[in-house]
Amino acid sequence: MTNSSSTAKTPSKGKSLPPKLIIKLGKTIWSTLWHQMMSKMAPRNQTGDYIRPASQFRNSVGTQPDNPYQPEAARYRLYVGLGCPWAHRTLVVRAMKGLEAAISVSIVYPDGDAGIWALEDSQQGCSTLPELYALAQPGYNGRSTVPVLWDLKTNTIVNNESAEIIVMLNDQFNQWATHPDLDLYPESLKAEIDQWNDKIYHRVNNGVYRCGFAQTQQAYETACTEVFDTLDEIEEVLETKRYLCGNQLTLADVRLFTTLFRFDIVYYGLFKCNRRRIADYKNLGAYLRDLYQIPGVADTCNLEQVKQDYYGNLFPLNPGGIIPLGPDISNLLEPHERQIGALGNAP
């Protein structure tokens, strides 16, 4: 009988790399590619902290005699991506003010392979957002971002800064608004609203991106600490106030809302903001439900598109492209019990 062990073929030496070397080589290659892709997607400073480039189109709709962009119904269009929190702000204010008939909307979708926004339908001879930007400004080579407030009369971009667009939507189209009496940026509260906006933008709205796009451990930990320190501060404020500035809904709440809506869905996991969920906060969780249940707001919230845009298109953060099944957001329809008087706040 032949000994099976003596006839079995032994692996040839020198035909494969040791596993340890394979892993080290793979990590080196992936790390190099990751930093290259991140540098294009998310500019950084020397410490690895994400630096968001400034918006480039900063004109305003207004009634000044010399302003070429006068308020008119059906003259302006919003280009938005449903997954983008900055674009989402404009949809929320449009819904709250009841401007659906006055301001049209075109949806754009991310092209993950090209790293650009693609138009749902070709418009003005353009099929992508960069082409639309080039139409507005020939030779433009900057970032092509949403939202865009587009002037259909002159075929150009009026503004692509969400913080400024929502101010225009709040006060320049009241003649055509269903809710013209709703003022989200009242003169008496502007200073307080601006203070909240400055803090929330850096530490929360952009803070979650500074976590997700951080390219060093130190940059991530600094950003993550700021995010949750600020959320903890807001949690305390909301113990006695229905909204950030008291009993009146303002643009500060709108700007915070679109980040809070996405927090447990994508920022908690994909962006590593995982010290706590918004659902784990007593006041913030109820505040999110309160805002979500304002008539028209839930219709602007597209859970599946948010997941698709983040998990499906931010390749450096999710190379496998797997879209999570959850979370279940039906809890946003549960009672919030934040009506005036319920928190000890005066009517």
List the SSEs and their pairings.
Blueprint: H1 4-7, H2 19-41, E1 76-81, H3 85-97, E2 104-111, E3 116-123, E4 126-128, H4 129-136, E5 148-151, E6 156-159, H5 162-171, H6 190-205, H7 207-212, H8 217-237, H9 251-267, H10 282-292, H11 303-311
Parallel strand pairs: 1-2
Antiparallel strand pairs: 1-5, 2-3, 3-4, 5-6
Helix pairs in contact: 3-5, 3-9, 6-8, 6-9
Domain GST C-terminal: 186-310
EC number: 2.5.1.18
Site (Lowers pKa of active site Cys): 267, 310
Question: Care to describe what's here?
Answer:
The protein is of the alpha+beta class and 347 residues long. The protein has 2 domains: 76-176, 3-Layer(aba) Sandwich (Glutaredoxin); 187-333, Glutathione S-transferase Yfyf (Class Pi), Chain A, domain 2, CATH 1.20.1050.10. The chain has helices spanning 4-7, 19-41, 85-97, 129-136, 162-171, 190-205, 207-212, 217-237, 251-267, 282-292, 303-311, and strands spanning 76-81, 104-111, 116-123, 126-128, 148-151, 156-159. Strands 4-3-2-1-5-6 form a 6-stranded mixed β-sheet, sandwiched between helices. Strand 1 (76-81), helix 3 and strand 2 (104-111) form a beta-alpha-beta unit. Helix 3 (85-97) packs parallel to helix 5 (162-171), helix 6 packs antiparallel against helix 8 and helix 6 packs parallel to helix 9. The longest helix has 23 residues, at 19-41. It starts with a helix and ends in a 36-residue tail after the last helix. The model has no long low-confidence stretch (mean pLDDT 90).
